[in-house]
Design goal:
Glutaredoxin, 5 strands, Serine Threonine Protein Phosphatase 5, Tetratricopeptide repeat, alpha/beta, 2 domains, about 10% strand
Length: about 300
């Protein structure tokens, strides 16, 4: 078992123990939670051009492959984040979307082709070797390769700190720091979390949005979630969407759920509208996320209506 997988497995175990002490009054815990919504990144206008897959050819720089496919429903969730990463790191790395089991024709006819019009897209055949080496059976997946050696594989949005470290020649230090931060949070969760720990946990996990989102979802979906559970879930989810600007509908889904369960129906409904707009922008079905979004919007509307007796 790899170190990262071991940490994730331990986190799942200790979450059951987290916040298991004497529960704090809901209003005292929630008062510490910053539930003011972050600002959203602007959504892109429809592109009139489409991306044309080309063969990958090494250009001497480390290569960041963002594995995706037009048939992959979950890939649409992080698609705009992939675009942002490609634009942010394209001056230091050879960055592109590597197609997986996706023909050029299938891709070109999909909505994904328009959304990636400003990003380099590599044909599936040309990156097949690295798709196998990087373990791209499950996508989306980011994989950093340098001179044939795999440096990183994981979620693209959690790679920023490591990419910065690699570009500056301090990748190992960045990797060790990230692992230490995770271990510290896992230990804190195992000992039990109070409302006063929330800000520290958010700060320690900042820059690792994939893990933050996973923790927030686990906390918010517990059968019996304490006020501290929900306050931490809201704080983590808010940090995630604040960092990516609300460009990933799976992250937004976690945030709307956490807000609703924590007792912030109006804020949850505001996030739900963002979910609907984002899903439309990326032409994603978002069946579960949209169903939840409409439920939160309806609840917020009904809650504000005056009650009358029949």
């Amino acid at each position: 078992m790899s170190y990262n997988r071991g940490v994730r497995a331990l986190a799942l175990i200790v979450l059951a123990a987290a916040c298991s002490g004497d529960p704090e009054p809901a209003d005292e815990v929630i008062r510490e939670t910053d539930h003011v919504l972050p600002g959203w990144a602007p959504l892109p206008p429809p592109n009139v051009t489409t991306a044309k897959p080309t063969p990958w050819v090494a250009d001497g720089r480390p290569t960041l492959l963002l594995f995706s496919a037009s048939w992959c429903a979950s890939c649409y969730a992080s698609l705009l984040t992939d675009v942002a990463i490609a634009q942010e790191y394209g001056d230091r790395f050879q960055v592109g979307v590597g197609l997986v089991e996706n023909t050029d024709v299938e891709f070109s006819k999909s909505p994904m082709a328009r959304l990636l019009a400003d990003v380099t897209v590599w044909s599936a055949d040309s990156v097949r070797t690295y798709a196998t080496k990087c373990g791209a059976e499950a996508i989306p997946l980011a994989c950093l390769v340098d001179r044939g050696r795999i440096i990183y594989r994981g979620s693209a949005d959690s790679a920023r700190k490591l990419l910065d470290g690699y570009a500056q020649g301090r990748f190992e230090a960045a990797r060790i720091a990230a692992a230490a931060a995770r271990a510290g949070v896992v230990a804190k969760l195992a000992l039990g979390v109070s409302g006063g720990d929330i800000a520290e946990i958010v700060a320690a996990t900042h820059g690792d949005p994939g893990w933050q989102n996973s923790l927030a979802w686990q906390l918010a979906t517990r059968d019996v979630a304490s006020p501290t559970d929900l306050a931490l879930a809201v704080a983590l989810a808010r940090d995630v969407v604040g960092e990516d600007g609300g460009l990933d509908f799976l992250h937004l889904d976690t945030y709307q759920l956490a807000l609703s369960k924590a007792g912030f129906p109006d804020q949850a409904a505001a996030v739900s509208w963002r979910v609907l707009h984002l899903c439309k922008t990326v032409s994603a079905e978002c069946m579960i996320e949209k169903r939840r979004a409409w439920a939160y919007i309806y609840y917020a509307r009904e809650r504000g209506k005056p009650r009358t007796r029949g």
